[in-house]
Amino acid sequence: MAQSQHHGSSEPRNRQEEQNQQNKKVHTGSQHEHTADDTGKTTRAKTPLDVAVQASSQTRKTASKVEKAAVHAQKKAVNADKKVAAVERKAKAAERKVASAEKKALTAEQRAAQAEKRALLRADTFTNAPKVSRDTLTREEREEIAKHDKEEREEAEKLTKTSRSPIGRWWRRVQASPDKVTLAMAIVTLGVVYGDIGTSPLYTVQTFLAGQGGLAKIDRPAVLGMLSLIFWTLLLITTVKYVLVAMHADNKGEGGIFALFSLVRRYGKWLVVPAMVGGAAFLADSVLTPAVSISSAVEGLQTIPAFTHAFEENTSLTLMITIVIIVVLFSVQARGTESIGKVFGSVVLVWFAFLALVGIVNLSGDWTIFEAINPVYGVEFLFSSHNVAGLSLMGTVFLSTTGAEALYSDMGHVGRGNIYFTWPFINVALVLNYFGQGAWMLNNRGDKSLANVTVNPFFQMMSPNVRYVGVILSVAAGVIASQALITGAFTMVSEATGLNWMPHLQVRYPSRTRGQLYIPTVNVVLCIATLTVLAIFKDSEHISAAYGLALTITMLATTILLTTYVWHHHHRVGAVCFFALFVTTDSLFFISSMSKFLRGGWFTMLLTAVILLIMITWNDGTKIERSQRRHMKPRDFKPALAKLHDDFRIPYFADNIVYLTSDSELRRLDTDIFFSIFADHPKRARAWWAVSVVTTDEPFTREYSVEDFGTDYIFRVRIRLGFKVSQSIPAYIHQIMHDLSSSGELPEQKSVYPKVDADPDIGTVRYVLVHKALMPESKITGREALSLKMKYAIRRVAGSPVKWFGLAPYNPVVEVQPLFLSTRRPPRLKRVAFRTATRRKAAVSRQPDDESAEQSQDASHQASPKGPGNLLSAPAAAGVADGHSREVR
Fold first, then answer.
1. How far apart are the C-alpha atoms of 683 and 681, rounded to whole Å?
2. CB-based contact 282:615 (threshold 8 Å)
3. Is 447 helix (H, G, I), strand (E, B) or coil?
4. Mean pLDDT of the chain
5. Of 11, 270, 318, 857, which is most buried with the most CB atoms under 10 A?
6. Where are the alpha helices (DSSP H) in 516-548?
7. Is the alpha carbon torsion for 133, 135, 141, 143 positive or negative?
8. Mind giving me the DSSP string for 404-464?
């Protein structure tokens, strides 16, 4: 059994071995077939399956190789990318290190630059130079504008409420017209306008009594005649001529004889004569008014018993008090007429009320004194034998209306409507006071205690207790009278400047109204002249002898100009009637006032002549200069300036050169500026500036316009400033430069070193002013040459724009250029040979046998070249040089 099992298990094993051998044979056979195929010995034919299998096997192998190659290449690429990334990281790290190093170096440079800049800025801050702020208005200006707007709204609301009735509608039209009336300005009007005419009762009647021989020598016809002449003088001259006629002839709200001339000068060149003469006479009379008004009021202190002893011991006490008051008055003018006028206006209101009250009290219920309103009394007394003074009585009567011209001149300060509103009260108060003085004279003409003493009815008609008040108020009124003439003088000088009859002076506007101005130079001149008058005449009695004469000339000139205005603007018949009436009265006043000439009127006439000479001189000089003044268009000046701007051979005179010019036209350039740039050594700059300053009618205007002519180095600038704005030109110039630099119109400028203007972002700035000088060869008359010389002398005294515009701290350049008028051509010079003493001696001692040598020398002379610039021969030139050298030794 065991054998059978073992035999059964070996049988399958033998089968397996046989199968393996057969497979081996087949495999061996296939290999033999393949070998036969490879050797070209085909044992059997290949089937398509074999080919496909073989191709598939080959493809797999190729794909495997390609895949392996791709994987290998990818690995290499990855490795390469890693290497590149590593290199880039290293490069970036290196770049960061370099950048960090550069940054550290740059930071060090910046720190050094900033430290240097801080050091420069620290040095600049020591100058504290003025700079403009970011705001166009200050806080005070905004508050003032808001206050003004609020007042206008409240006034408009009031007018709206009261405009329902016919009277209300009329009042609304008045308030909307140039004749606007306000209570505040009405009070200012009292203080500014009526001071001069308000003090006339102080001395007019006193002068009348002195001219008639005293209180004992007058009678009722004399008093009525005097009062009649005063009444009609006030009515005709002040009310009709000035208030009703002249005040309608205003030039943009401004009054005065110069404003009137501006309206009529186109109707005839001859009108300049009355305008100049009248203006000069008014300014001369402005010097005497403070002296006579204040001194006559101060002398009223002598009538008070408590002060009598003090004035007797010190006779010059009145003069000393007057001088102190005048100096104080002129010293407060800089604060403006509005602030002064409010204080003075309240005083004047009390003063005129006092005048009216005192006059009414002295009438004593006797209203028959008003018979003097009849003009017959005045005419009869003027030509009667009882009139001791004769025609000179009209000169005394004229004193009652001396403030009429000032009333017209001050119209620009307060407005026409306020004068219309206040004049009736002033006129009534004056008439009542004059008639009260007349009633007192009639009641006391028999008083023997007053027969042989100098009597001033104004103070005598008051009781002793009231006299204290009267003297105090009269002194205040005298100060206010001076104020009226001072403000009038400021207006007249400003208008004369506009006409080029006087030098341009620094003008300030202390109040919000442009008409209220202050001229420092005029203020000083008036103060000195008034003190000179006091030093010469001592008291009011002698000053009044000179007072009023010049003003009659002004009134006569005003009549001529007003007649021309009425003739061309209204009715010619009315102009003829106006001329006939007022020329007659003004001429009568002038002839009668001429009796004062030797008693002091000469001084007023002398002042008038001096002021007239200044006007004529300045007017003629201005005309001569304007006849030479030329302007250049851009095509004329741009090529030369462009060439100079790019000429690097010439060093910079300054980064910015600023010229101040009075020409406000932006599209042209003065030849004075052009030739100043090229005169002597050309003034090369990064930018040239021609700047003009214009004062506007608004108080707080601040604006500018620029014309660059298509360049970045030529700029015409017009600065418009309100009349209350300080004209700090350097600060505004720097602002304009910064604005143009920010907009790219001006190339960037940096200052390396500290400057006075403390502005490192703008280059150096040099200011240049050009003055003219007359050439000796100018074809000009002797009078014209004298006018120019006097004009330049006056200009030196009057001051320079250097001070007005705040340029003095910046060391401006003041140049003088010749005034190229038509010149006479002098004959040409003839050049002669220069002969020395040695050559003359040699010529004298020459022997006759030297003739041959002379001939040879003449031949050499003839052979030497001669041209226009070679008039001497070569040997002669050598002799000249030798002789010159010997003389030098």
1. 6
2. no
3. coil
4. 77
5. 318
6. 520-537, 540-546
7. negative
8. HHHHHHTHHHH-HHHHHHHHHHHHHHHHHHHHHHHHHHHHHTT-GGGSSS---HHHHTS-H
* 830 touches 754 (CB < 8 A): no
pLDDT tens per residue, range 562-600 = 999 998 887 888 889 989 999 988 888 888 888 777 777
Contact between residue 721 and residue 693 where contact means Cβ atoms under 8 Å apart: yes
Instruction: Compute the distance between CA of residue 478 and CA of residue 322 in angstroms, rounded to an integer.
Output: 10
Q: Measuring CA to CA, how many Å separate 888 from each of 292, 832, 839, 881?
A: 72, 20, 16, 11
Round to whole Å and give the CA distance between 813 and 82.
75
Which pLDDT belongs to residue 705?
92
- The structure tokens 């027969």 sit at 451
Average pLDDT for residues 236-263, to the nearest whole number? 85
Per-residue pLDDT, averaged over 550-558, amounts to 87
Helix axes 317-331, 305-313, angle to 10 degrees: 100
DSSP 826-851: PPPP-------HHHHHHHHT--GGGH
Give 116-140 as a DSSP string: HHHHHHHHHTTT------S-SS-HH
Question: Could you read off the pLDDT of 185-239 as tens digits, one per residue?
Answer: 888 888 778 877 888 888 888 888 888 877 878 888 899 999 999 999 999 999 9
Taking residues 667-681, what's their average pLDDT?
A: 87
How far apart CA 462 and CA 465 sit, in angstroms, is 8
**Secondary structure (3-state) at 456:** coil
Element (H, E) at 469: helix 464-498
Q: Residue 849 above 60 pLDDT?
A: no
Query: Do 511 and 339 touch, CB atoms closer than 8 A?
Result: yes
**Is 559:582 a contact under the CB 8 Å cutoff?**
yes
Q: Which amino acid is at 667?
A: R
Query: What is the number of other CB atoms lying within 10 angstroms of the CB of residue 448?
Result: 7
Instruction: Quickly list DSSP for 174-214.
Output: HHTSTT---HHHHHHHHHHHSHHHHTGGGTHHHHHHHHHTS
Q: Give the CA angle between residues 530, 533, 537 to the nearest 5°.
A: 150
- CA dist 350 and 356 (Å) reads 10
Long-range pairs, 868-876, Cβ under 8 A, ≥24: 871/831, 871/833, 872/833, 876/833
Residue 720, beta-bridge partner list: 694, 703
Rounded-to-integer distance, Cα 30 and Cα 53, Å: 14
How much is the CA Rg of the chain, to the nearest whole Å?
Answer: 52
Structure tokens at 733: 């110039």
CA 636 to chain centre: 29
Q: What DSSP element (H or E) covers 703?
A: strand 702-707
Q: Are strands 702-707 and 684-696 parallel, antiparallel or unpaired?
A: unpaired
Q: Residue 283 in contact with residue 307, Cβ under 8 Å? A: no
Strands 702-707 and 714-722: antiparallel
Kindly list the strands in the beta sheet with 652-660, ordered across the sheet, starting from the edge strand earlier in the chain.
702-707, 714-722, 684-696, 652-660, 765-774, 813-819
Task: Please answer whether residues 804 and 727 qualify as being in contact, where contact means their C-beta atoms are separated by less than 8 angstroms.
Answer: yes
Which two structure tokens, joined as six digits, stand for 216?
Answer: 């004992």
> Per-residue pLDDT averaged across 20-32, rounded?
48
Q: Is residue 434 pLDDT above 90, yes or no? A: yes
Both tokens assigned to 12:
């399958």
pLDDT-derived band of residue 888, with 50, 70 and 90 as boundaries?
very low
- Sorting pLDDT into bands at 50, 70 and 90, what band is 691? very high
Q: Give the dihedral of Cα atoms 235, 241, 243, 249; nearest 10 deg.
A: 170
Upper half-sphere CA count for residue 441 (Cβ side, 13 Å): 30
Whether 656 has a pLDDT exceeding 80, the answer reads: yes
More confident position, 91 or 138: 91
32 pLDDT higher than 60: no
CA terminus-to-terminus distance, the chain? 173
> In angstroms, rounded to a whole number, what is the distance separating the alpha carbons of residues 548 and 199?
14
